[in-house]
Design a protein that fits this description.
The chain is α/β, with parallel strands linked by helices. The chain has one domain: 3-Layer(aba) Sandwich (Rossmann fold). It is 51% helix and 15% strand. A seven-stranded parallel sheet has the order 3-2-1-4-5-6-7, with helices on both faces. α6 runs antiparallel to α9 (245-266) and α8 (234-243) packs across α9 (245-266). The structure holds NADP nicotinamide-adenine-dinucleotide phosphate. Residues 11-18, 36-38, 41, 61-63, 91-94, 114, 139, 141, 184, 186-187, 189-192 line the site of NADP nicotinamide-adenine-dinucleotide phosphate. Pfam families: adh_short (PF00106). One of its GO terms (molecular function) is oxidoreductase activity.
Length: 269
């Protein structure tokens, strides 16, 4: 899709990746509807853009029914004014690095909700307000393809998001709406606290700057590529894990002590 003058709804806009995606989309001539919970951060982001008056903010807690309804009504209103959203980017997400045994039911539910159920419900909602041609882009993770200790719930959610994206793209084949999936690897944002960053360093896991992810967002939208994994060797591991999961299990087993050391620190042990 050519992004010039397209209207893009970006969730998680004020986060590390969201901010860079917003800048990159603006540079391509897109008009943005920036969504997150914290209005000050959204205002600051909007003001930091080159043409703030071309963009809107929408304060909504997407983990609530009210937040989702607010997005829907806003998009339907825009649609009635002839300002349909052309692209929905489901980017809001969160995770907790923790043993499953230590997680509360509420925290598991919230993580599944924000990373999986919310993109599904926003995609469903979008069917009534998105342009045709239109694009839904779901931001997943390498952890959607590789089960990793300490991220059981997040892996489950992002894995579900990948399959959801694939199924919806096939379901909507010929409708004018594409559903794409982008899986970043570790990225330098506040999603990862200092212990996770230390662990990644120790394990030799590379971390991208959010600007790299933003470049991929632009590219996948322009090419309308169904799915993309960012980074070597992660994209190869994702494939190997599908065909030969034991190889990946053996590799992670060698890292087990390091991983447990850092999870235990999270739990204050
Ligand atoms: N960073 C990484 O290592 C990494 C790697 C792979 C994939 N990803 C994925 O990339 C996406 C962006 O991550 P990030 O690193 O940019 O995270 P981040 O810096 O923590 O930003 C998260 C964004 O989501 C918003 N958000 C959180 N809860 C929300 C809620 N209930 N309702 C509405 N908005 C909410 C936050 O704003 P408010 O708090 O103001 O609501 C913020 O704008 C996520 O889907 C993440 O899973 C990240």
């Amino acid at each position: 899709m050519e992004l010039q003058d397209k209207r893009v709804l970006l969730t998680g806009a004020s986060g590390g990746i969201g901010k860079e995606v917003a800048k990159a989309l603006e540079a391509k001539g897109a008009k943005l509807l920036l969504v997150a919970r914290n209005s000050n951060k959204l205002e600051a982001l909007k003001d930091s853009l080159e043409f703030p008056h071309q963009h809107e903010i929408l304060v909504a807690d997407l983990s609530t029914d009210g937040g989702l309804e607010k997005v829907k009504q806003t998009c339907l209103n825009l649609s009635q004014k002839g300002q349909r959203i052309d692209v929905l980017i489901n980017n809001a997400g969160s995770n907790q690095f923790s043993f499953l045994a230590q997680r509360t039911t509420a925290s598991i539910e919230l993580e599944i909700r924000l990373n999986l159920l919310v993109p599904m419900l926003l995609s469903q909602s979008a069917l009534s307000w998105i342009s045709r041609p239109g694009i839904i882009l779901n931001v997943g993770s390498t952890f959607g393809s590789i089960g990793f200790p300490g991220y059981t719930t997040y892996c489950a959610a992002k894995s579900g998001l990948q399959r959801f994206s694939e199924a919806l793209d096939r379901e909507l084949d010929g409708s004018g709406i594409r559903t794409l999936y982008l899986a970043p690897r570790a990225t330098d944002t506040s999603l990862n606290d200092h212990l996770v960053n230390q662990m990644n360093q120790k394990l030799g896991n590379k971390s991208d700057s959010p600007t790299i992810v933003a470049e991929h967002v632009i590219d996948i939208l322009e090419k309308e590529q169904a799915a993309r994994w960012i980074g070597w060797p992660e994209k190869i591991f994702a494939r190997i894990n599908q065909i030969l999961p034991t190889v990946v299990s053996n590799s992670i087993r060698k890292q087990q002590d390091t991983i447990h050391h850092f999870i235990n620190q999270v739990h204050g042990k």
